[in-house]
């Protein structure tokens, strides 16, 4: 089968290229990205980026140009996997909307125009409505895909993911012949993406101690926050199963492990933990964001605390999917990758 990956140069995209390269069912892969891996004059493009035919396409280019390039790239495809998403610059919401909302709409329209039978779109846990009232601490009860997808109003990321899912609802209604799948994954990481994710979420200044030694003196942690982590290879296996089986609907992808501040502190700060009330930390984050020190807007904290724990029973039952990397090892791998300057020749995943 022929598969197109939009956003193939990033974290999940690179892992999916590795997975598809090992699957004899997938005979052809087209990789679409705004910044494509290139040889530097002394070396060639290396795996997994050498396993696909690359097409450069910036989703924010003029509509006609993008539609022509995408439609041509999608021709003859059995599935399109849309992973492209911008998180920065977080102060420029107009740019984020052009990439994330308009870009997704353009991918969907091109898939319909090219007659693609299956569209798989990356969503995330923050599309879900928060658990419990705002004044109450979140619970750790795992939620299935039936949990409401109204998002967290104060989070730009959450609002955008909700808008994309409503867009997909309309797409399914208007084009019942198209199989549409939404992948709602936990926070997804891998060693090679450590530098990219740290730049996007913490910035170079705030992450400096981790880059030097892989350790923080003390972990400052918002009270009530608990997280699920997923290895990019495990996420890619879920996507692969969805594509080759042409499964539709929503799928949660997450490891059952739920990490608390104490768990994270054990890995990144020698167990030294300082819990802070979430409103206090949000005020500090707001000041840092407005001062252009923190790269993520304050609503990220609301989303991180408010999202439900994901129940991946549907993926296990229908995809026979089971993550093989536990959350602690995923976190340790990411921190080691950051300290060691891990990365690849793909522009989003460059080290440093």
CATH architecture of the domain at 2-201 and 229-256 and 308-324: 3-Layer(aba) Sandwich
Portion in strands: 5-15%
Order of helices and strands: EHEEHEHEHEEHHHEEHEHEHHHH
Structural class by SSE content: alpha/beta
CATH topology annotation of the domain at 2-201 and 229-256 and 308-324: Rossmann fold
Give the overall pLDDT as a whole number: 92
- Work out the helicity level: 40-55%
CATH H-level name of the domain at 2-201 and 229-256 and 308-324... which superfamily? NAD(P)-binding Rossmann-like Domain
Main beta sheet, described?
Answer: 7 strands, parallel
**Multimer state:** single chain
Count, helices: 13
Radius of gyration: 19 Å
| Strand elements, count | 11
Strands in their spatial order, largest beta sheet: 3-2-1-4-5-6-10
- CATH class wording of the domain at 2-201 and 229-256 and 308-324: Alpha Beta
Properties at a glance:
alpha/beta; 352 residues; two-stranded parallel ribbon; 41% helix; seven-stranded parallel sheet; 13 helices; Rossmann fold
Topology of helices and strands:
Layout (H helix, E strand, L loop, with lengths): L1 E5 L4 H11 L6 E6 L19 E4 L6 H12 L4 E4 L10 H21 L4 E7 L31 H19 L4 E7 L1 E3 L4 H8 L1 H4 L1 H6 L5 E4 L6 E3 H14 L3 E5 L7 H8 L4 E4 L1 H13 L8 H8 L6 H7 L7 H14 L12
Parallel strand pairs: 1-2, 1-4, 2-3, 4-5, 5-6, 6-10, 7-9, 8-11
